[in-house]
């Protein structure tokens, strides 16, 4: 009999990838809020995580052996405009989940973000002080600290920019890029914002590795530091899209609600030493292209 893994945010981009990867080793239960999606071999439960009473009774019913908390309001601009709504899910729910995991004394992984840093001293390791510049980053810091206070065994995994193939109901940052280029429109991408991107599949494998091997804070970035513009050029080449339509721009050229740090590249050598092996961006995109061609 396989152990039970509970995944929050199962219908989101990362949650969906987690469900795909985890089901070979775990009996997976996925919590989805508004979207009731059937994922093959996964028990999907529709639940609003802010309903703590319902959440508590779900824990009682399922008695999970481990949990990965991937649900979040992860759009920085939305969090900047609606801090109270996003606080509820990004902080309030996370603290309640830490309490419930503490009661059961089970492994608990929390997906945080590279945006807990201000982008001025990259690359960032796990011991570097946090210094967020947006509400989203602030909320993730409050969740990290609050969860560790309530349940010191919590594993905090800071995630980078993620991309990959997606089900119909979710998206990663590359889907709008691909659509724009397919329509023959120009795509402007930042040359002065650097991240360490990773595929959803690699990220999911990293989270499951963290669940089995570590405690405390772990960075799950990719192996390459790339600007969005550099990423776009590789993507266009691999997916055979018109790369001449990709134009360079600066963060300052585009008005956004949430301030953006210039370079939040993660130093993930701790995870690499544990056996985390994210694919290089080109390799990951080639795999995605191969899968798309099979469909």
Written account of the structure:
By secondary structure, this protein is of the alpha/beta class. The chain has helices at 13-22, 52-62, 76-81, 83-104, 135-150, 174-182, 200-213, 228-238, 269-274, 281-294; strands at 4-8, 27-32, 43-46, 66-69, 108-113, 155-159, 162-163, 187-190, 194-195, 198-199, 216-219, 226-227, 246-249. Helix 1 (13-22) links the parallel strand 1 (4-8) and strand 2. The longest helix has 22 residues, at 83-104. The two termini are 33 Å apart.
Tags for this entry?
295 residues, 40% helix, alpha/beta, two-stranded parallel sheet
Provide a count of the helices.
10
> How many beta-strand runs?
13
Order of helices and strands: EHEEHEHHEHEEHEEEHEEHEHH
Query: Which percent range fits the helix content?
Result: 40-55%
- Estimate the mean pLDDT confidence: 94
For the largest beta-sheet, the strand count, sense and barrel status come to: 7 strands, parallel
How much is the radius of gyration in Å? 18 Å
Q: Structural class given helices, strands, pairing?
A: alpha/beta
Strand order of the largest sheet: 3-2-1-4-5-6-11
Strand content: 15-25%
Q: In whole angstroms, how far apart are the ends? A: 33 Å
Shape, please? globular
The stretches of 5 or more residues where confidence is low (pLDDT under 50) are none
